[in-house]
């Protein structure tokens, strides 16, 4: 269904504090608006949004999501999963870029977009117009607790929506940004380029092969997680001090932080972690090994586990072999050890190998496909959700892994169509209906 070009115009609210000013007149088809109390618990008032019962841990927190693509939208979606009300602003007539990432369902909608944008009410605005910018400004100053964005530096300032200015007018506001690179470097950030340029590809791939990207946008996802935790910390500080602040995460710094012990191996020892494929540069046997039927993943990380491994396979002789007497020795002689493991596994089906490894206390598991993970694995079933859409359809969702004992969390509403709740939100702005 095509989106309407929805805008609202007029003079900006000049709220000097967290309290909304009296009603103002907006020059548009929507004459009067006041979005203080009538906008509380917004999502419960909009169609196709299920409130959590009892309320989620972030119930009452209001998030204005001005972002697109992956990292920042993922953070906003995560806050919604925890119970926050989230309004996503998209460009009228275009929308988030991920709406155009295939493959698509039979109605032309993108599951890629769904993955990062459930739990949100959607409004489409023309932010090149004064009217559209005034709607955003009022939502930020009179409704939102948190504003999330990932525009190129200076864009919001040119629109009169600079985050510093918004916080100056509303000191309780928490603002949050995702950038490609640290402050002062306005280059756009792309997950693939950051995996290459911030070290991850250099340690990923086969020893004699090329650097390889991880199969999912892990830089974006980590940055989204970091932004979520930063926002939560800022809200906690606001509960103490009454003041908001700005939280910024760059994709580059998120990627560098992910280097973890590999990064410290270089900083402390000058050691570049080599590419080892599915292996491990610190322990063994540790790899994906073929069996008579299907491959299995084996993670033998200690001498105790290696002892059990050898005994269960009837190869106690390996315990006396100096090539395999310690983790470092086994890593140094990985090819020799791998050849022995492959030979031992070759006559056994995967199920038998896994049974032996379980008996030995060695971490191991099958290499599952997505159909096997989502259709056959019992542990996955509680994470699978089906969310109703406004057209009577359904949208699948994969829940986030939080489990709270007292305040439930989970997917609450399907990702919106472009501008799906524009009329409802603008109506609430107009007449203050509850």
Task: Describe, in plain words, how this protein is organized in 3D.
With about 425 residues, this protein is α/β, with parallel strands linked by helices. It has 2 domains: about 280 residues, Crotonobetainyl-coa:carnitine coa-transferase, domain 1 (Rossmann fold); about 70 residues, formyl-coa transferase, domain 3. Helix content is about 35%, strand content about 15%. The strands form 4 sheets. Strands 5-4-3-6-7-8 form a 6-stranded parallel sheet, sandwiched between helices. A 3-stranded antiparallel sheet has the order 9-10-11, with helices on one face. The protein has a two-stranded antiparallel sheet with strand order 1-2. α2 links the parallel β3 and β4. The longest helix has 24 residues. The protein starts with about 25 loop residues before the first strand and ends with a helix. The N terminus is likely disordered.
List the helices and strands and how they pair.
Blueprint: E1 24-25, E2 32-33, H1 42-45, E3 62-65, H2 71-81, E4 85-91, H3 111-117, E5 121-125, H4 130-143, E6 146-149, H5 155-158, H6 163-169, E7 174-179, H7 191-197, H8 218-241, E8 246-250, H9 251-258, H10 260-269, E9 286-289, E10 296-299, H11 303-312, H12 327-332, H13 334-345, H14 350-360, E11 364-366, H15 370-376, E12 384-388, E13 394-398, H16 422-431
Parallel strand pairs: 3-4, 3-6, 4-5, 6-7, 7-8
Antiparallel strand pairs: 1-2, 9-10, 10-11, 12-13
Helix pairs in contact: 2-8, 8-9, 11-14
